[in-house]
Amino acid sequence: xxxxxxxxxxxxxxxxxxxxxxxxxxxxxxxxxxxxxxxxxxxxxxxxxxxxxxxxxxxxxxxxxxxxxxxxxxxxxxxxxxxxx
Length: 85
Hints:
By secondary structure, the chain is an alpha+beta fold.
């Protein structure tokens, strides 16, 4: 396990009640599981389920989260769907 940062944007930030937090994880799935435990509300879980993710600025896309390792200092950005254009 390494220390990484999760940054929340827009509705994810509102649902989490924070802009960012530090978590211990080995994979993206671990980090997101920790976030779900830290924020057990239904709204947060719904927003997280609709969100896309960046790891150090690179899109995750449809890759399996359990197969994406994180390194010490990795920044995970949670991007919910945005309205407008």
